[in-house]
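Request: Mind sharing a record?
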Amino acid sequence: MIVAALGGCKLEKNDIVADGDGKDVVSSQPGGDMNSLVADIWDKQVIPHLQDTSTDMKSLAIAIAEDLDAAGNANGYRAASEGSPWNFATRITGTIVSAKTDTRAATAEIDLDGDGEADVTLQLGPVIRGTALRDVLPFIDFTSFTDQIEFAQLSRALNTRAYEAALKDLPRDALVGQKIDAMGAFTVRGSAPPFLVTPVALKVGE
């Protein structure tokens, strides 16, 4: 079942810096509607950026294990502020080895290399945790928003849009054993899998 279309994937250096480096930096007016802002940028900026910068997860996991900063400099993005974690756009091809769907924060464990062990935890929602979708985008900068509350609202709006675009119509039964292709983003705080990925596009089955 195709839930959302997947685009192309590249393995390349992401040279965009925190100020946008020529990209249109997203900003809002005080008290702005974050859902409307996300609706405006989703197809024009968010999805094209993830398609252009996503890296194969198997290759990326190896690179992260070898040297996180080298992997980040080559294929990731982080804000200029000191101590910010690396964020990555990724493409995933694998098999679902387990799924927890009896919770609103549903997840599926994905085996990428056929050893039966989970390498990636894919968020299925409707509750989507984390800020990876916001933080992987170089055209979104905290200084362009009113305050931390508004910046957090933006992250929630991005997560909600991802759920509605890629996950809302996903059947939750008989997921184990299914093949899966996905595109999404994750944040690295450490180097050990499984990495928690928020998908923006997903295909389940042959």
Observations:
- The beta strands are 55-56, 76-77, 86-100, 105-111, 120-126, 179-188, 195-204.
- The CA atoms of residues 18 and 81 lie 9 Å apart.
- DSSP finds five helices and seven strands in the chain.
- Confidence is low (pLDDT under 50) at residues 1-5, 7-23.
